[in-house]
Amino acid sequence: MSRPLQFRPHHFLCALGYRGEGYSDGFTANMTEIVTLGLKAEDGDSTEIEVIGATDAICGPCPKRRGALCSDQAKISALDLSHSKILGVRPGDRLTWGQAKARIRSLVQPGELGKICSECQWLDLGYCEDSLRELHES
Known about the structure:
By secondary structure, this protein is mainly alpha-helical. The longest helix has 15 residues.
């Protein structure tokens, strides 16, 4: 059995909205592998994810990573807290990507990301909002 992916709480919505852009080439390659080859693969909905409270699979090659923390830790902590509350997840929880998408669909409505993700620099691009709307339409 393979190890579950490790996600901090705000990365569930990041993975949903990912469109091939990132903080560096290494970050983008890693995120593309996780999302495109993992979560969006034919069997991606069965991918197991473990919620953690520190840097995770996505953070690995990020240039802002500082060990188990981030150079923007205050902002990241605020995002994680907001997402943890809205999605009802906490470190130690395990769920599949399919269960995570169902949870997002039932708990996050289109138009709410401005409040939930207010600290995110990627929000204004609209990728996450588009992906959330597509999830609700599917």
